[in-house]
Structure formats: C-alpha cells, structure tokens
Amino acid sequence: MERHMSEEAIHRGRALVLADLAAEGVAGPGEVSLLEEAVAHRRWWVEQWPEGAVFVPGLLAQDMQDALLARHGRWPVCRQCAPEEPDPETHRLEVEPELGEDPHWVCGVTGRVVAPLGRLGGAGRRSEPGERDEPGERGDPGEWDDPGA
Description:
Blueprint: H1 2-23, H2 29-48, H3 56-72, E1 93-96, E2 104-107, E3 113-116
Antiparallel strand pairs: 1-2, 2-3
C-alpha cells in the first residue's frame, strides 16, 4: 500500500511539474529528461522516507528550478511583477511550502499566491476583486481544483 501511494505521488508530481513546464514553454526533450532524472531521484528518496510522499510534487518543482537555472535561467519567472519579456533582474516564483502538502507558486517579492503547482497556464489564476470565478479559479489556494485528480 505504501509503495502504491508513493508511486501515485511521484506520477502526480511529474504531471503537475510537466504542466507548468509546458505552460511556460520549456517542456522540450532536454527538460523532460531533466524531469525524469528528478523523478528517479525522488523515487529513491521516497523509498527511504515513505511518509514524505506527500511532499514529492513540491520537491520535484524545486528540483526542476535548480536543474533549469543553468540552462534557462530563473524558472518560472514571475509574470505578476514583470508581465513583459523578463530582464536579468526578473525574479522567479517560489514553491511554498518548501516542504509541505499542496504546493503553490508564490511571488517571492510580494508574497502573492500566483497559482497552485500544475496551474501556471492560467487555469489557477487568482480572480481580481469583483471578478466572477470560473470553474477551477478560486481565490483560496486550498480550494483550487486538483489537476491530478
């Protein structure tokens, strides 16, 4: 049962990170290979600590941020603060919680929640005050739909 839960968390995390890579236009063969390397590492990691399976999606996102830094620079770039083409001073979004369940992307400068992991393409975009929520678009990150479900 534990192994099944671990594999489920790994596959869910892979799918969420891949969705965000695709949304940001960096889901080419090289990046997918980097993701597969991260998945292999986290598979070993969760075998050592099965209770940590719930943390795997966020950890995979952080692994990809580190892996892509040299190849692409900061990923994903905060579009809330820099909606146009990023410049060298543009900052990336951070995964919060760093080691926790239900990871989401947060602007490290403003602290604003941008989207849950797996929803960078706009599906998890927060509504502005007075704007009507569409299905899957809610203001509270704890209420966003789970794209892996």
